[in-house]
Each structure stands twice: as structure tokens, then as C-alpha cells.
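Researcher: Good morning. I'm working through a list of sequences from a screen, and I'd like to move beyond sequence-only analysis. For each chain I'm collecting a predicted structure so we can compare shapes side by side. This is the next one on the list. No need for commentary yet; just the structure.
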Amino acid sequence: MTSTTADDAWLRELLLQGDWHPDGDDADGMAAVLAARDPGVDGSGGATRALLSALADAWERGWQPADVAHAVHRQGTARAARLVVALIAEDARVTDAASRAPEVWVDQLRDLGALTAGAATVVASWHRAGGRPVGEAWREVLTLATMLRTLPRIDRLVPPPSRWRAGPSREQAVSADDGARALRRIRALLVKAESTEFPDEAEALTAKAQELMTRHAVDVALLDLGGGAPGRAGVDTRRVHVDDPYVWAKVQLLGAVADANGVRLVWYQSLGIANLVGVAADLDAVELLFTSLLLQVGRALGAAERAAGRRSASRAFRRAFLLGYAVRIGERLRSAREQATATAAAERGVDLLPVLRSRQEAVDDVFTELFPRVRSTRSRSSMDAGGYWAGRAAAESADVGSRRSRLR
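Model: Good morning. C-alpha cells for this chain:
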């Protein structure tokens, strides 16, 4: 017996109200039932419609495309991750996201490869492309439905599709071209820092990148001040996804980079998601540096393990190394930013402290408005002293790259 439109209500209820977990026997049993009913996997399109409905509900609960893809990647399989990206692409087509969504939403769709039109019969097309057994495919659909349906409510930082206006809604900042040019120069410096084999040269290139970031941030602040624009108008939000292993130590590195650049951070520990609040130019700086430093710290950790011998293979050593690295990197970046700010002030003959203080107050105000119940936490676990000081030493000559890297 194959599925028909009359079965849609039953299938929708099954997917959106059932509690299907990857390691549960119930999911296997129901997948077998669905395989017998619909061996083509979603012949009627009912599963696709139900999953798109679950996705739309997730947008209303504060989730963004990259957040959903990250959550499914953490909890599910590679096949489930491909399916959710295909669903996100179909949702983008239906909602006309390319022309109506906020810029940050479109950027995430582009990064995911979800701006390319696919088949409207998402689940069936995904199954045909995968070539896996029918029961296995239905099991993936069941568990993905549960993942989407049970995503918790998080702070809404970007309007969901239901609140997008008809027609184009994105506004381009006056300084967008200047910002793009600055970012290209910064990325070029980071690529050079990554490619050099000489720590002193890498450190100099890193410092130059931070200097350019700071000068660009100063230019934006002065431009806003001269135009009479309110400080809060320049404050933006962004999310960064942090993957295992050593998530907490990586978040400390992200926090150190954010703090050095005047950006506030809130961490969703159970979701592996960091929320950043700051001036757009500073958010760009934080993302670039954090991505680059993840690459460098992975290489530095490998070198430290080889130098320290067998003892360094422990998780405690690695975690402490990353924490020590984060602390020292934060110190270096704050020093570089202060020096660049002082130089820019001297060159312009302007007292920048009131301007920058005003921008920081605007960031703090928006942060408090978005996250009124946030509280600070501090790790109380013990630390491997050798790993901590090895990490600090490695940070002295950090080679900053532009590509992501996974730590072991």
C-alpha cells in the first residue's frame, strides 16, 4: 500500500507529535511500518510538508538557518544533515528569502549552499540521491522531525520569515564598500601569517591584522558620530557555532577575542552556540580571528604534545593548553587594539575615548536588552599547570590562519 494525500494528516501527526529518538526501538518499528506503506519514501510529499512546518516553527522560536544545520550536525547523521540543508533551501525558495530576508539570513543560506533551487519533493529526492534502504531513510525522517520539533526556544536575534516585509528589505550601509575592502586586506594578512614558517613574521602579520581591524572600527565610529547616527544603530548580533572536542576551552578563546574587540558574548552551553553582540566591524574582526586562531592552536597543541612527550596526551593537558592559549591571546589582542587606537587618535588629532566609550555603552545597552537574565559563570575544575603554561607560551608566536580546523 502506497501513501496518498489522504494519509497526510496521519503522517503529519506522526512526525510532529511523535517522540522518535535515534537509539529507540520505536523508531525502528515505525520506520518499518512506513517503509511498507510507502516504499518510495514520501510519495505524496506529506513528510516534506510536515518537516517544512517544523522548520518554520523553529524560525519562530529564534533559530536561524546555520543554527539548525549546526544542531542537526551535532545530534544526527551526515545524511540527516544533508536532508535538513535541502529543507532549508526549499524553505528559502518558498519564502523568497533571497530578496526578502535580512542580510545575515541570506549569508547563512549562501554558506550552507541553500540558495540553489532544488526539487520541491525534498524528502523523496534526498532518498533517491542517497540510495540507502527504505527503512533507514524513514528512520532518518522520523528522528529529524523529532530534532526539529524539540529545538528549544532561544533568543530571537533576527526576524523570522513571518515578519519579513514584502519585497526587498535589506539596507546596505553607506560604508559597505570600505568595509569590504578592509576585510579583504585583513584576510590577505591572515593568509600570509598562515603560510609563513617564521613565528616572528606570523606574529607581526597578526598584529597588523588587528591594527587594521581597530582602525576600521575607529573609522566606522567616527563616521557614525559625524553623521549624527545613534550609537545603537551600529550594534549588530551574530552567532558562532563551536564544535567538540574541548568546547568549553574553545569558548574561552572566543571570549578572549571578543573581549579584546569590545564584543559581548552569551554562551548556550547545551547547544554549542555563542551569541555575539557588538559593532558590525568588531563582529567581523572576532569571527576572522577566532577562525584563524582555531587553526593555529591546533597546530601549536600538536607541537606541544610532541615536545612534552607521552604525558601531554591527556585530555587535562589539552584542555589546559587551550585555556592558557586563550588567556595569552586575549592579552596580546587587547594590547594591539590599545596601541592601534592610540596611534589613530594621534594621527587624527581626536580624543577617541569618548567616541569609543559611547559605542561600548551602546553595545552594553543592546546586550542587556537582548539578554536581561544572563549570568556569568566560571569554571571551577582543576587544571593541568604544564598544559596551561605551554598554551600561553604557544600564544606568544601565534600563527593566525583563515581556515577552520578540527582539534583531535
